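Entry 14. Ran structure prediction on the chain below.
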Amino acid sequence: MTTLFRIEGAAKRFGDFVAVNGVTLELPAGRLTAVIGPNGAGKTTLINLATGALVPDSGAMYFKGEAITHLLVHHRVRKGLSRSFQIMNIFARLSVLQNILVPVLARRGRAGFPFHRMERESEAMTEARRILREIGLLDEENLPAGALSHGDQRLLELGIAIAPAPELCFLDEPSSGLTPVERSTVMELIRRLSAEQRTTFVIVEHDMDVVFSLADWIVVMNRGEVLTEGSPAEIRENRAVREVYLGV
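Output, structure tokens:
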């Protein structure tokens, strides 16, 4: 597999607390990777480092072989990196369609274009509606995003994450707070997009049913370090993982 993203010796400290401690990790193109670990293991901090929300105290990040360690978030997005958040991150007062149009227009270099002149952006509108159709929200395109159910807001957030057409997308607890039916919908969408190899996904997730049903590869973190990594079958049988994380 071709390495799409490489984290090399990344470390991040908050005061006396070491959140990430010298992590080295390779993310191949086309492989759906799950990052798991107990609370405080450093999972979200690692994603924040990878996507530019935080700058590492030491170490380096490479995307398609290019050093991006100190690259700003919006520059990483333009290069093909995207993410969703553990806490809902949508534009509640904008319509569902407008929420998707924001990243679509940004990718087209039209981020400052006012929505009331959208008749000039037919291609962007078509693309945004295609994404809404994929995530099952086309019928709700005119609703305020804040009026959607929690599950549909999660779907919309996933749509926002894939709207920049990223090569690599980090998803932070995509199934959080969802009903079983909503969780199944989100999982199927991620699985389909991954299978079509349009986007390489890395998910941080606490729900082990989601992890073992979706992931091709699992990275286990503990105390800011990579404890182990391997296939779902290997992780299930790993004694250290069962003791530290699965509790059996």
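Residues 26 and 103 are 27 Å apart (CA to CA). Will compare against last week's run tomorrow.
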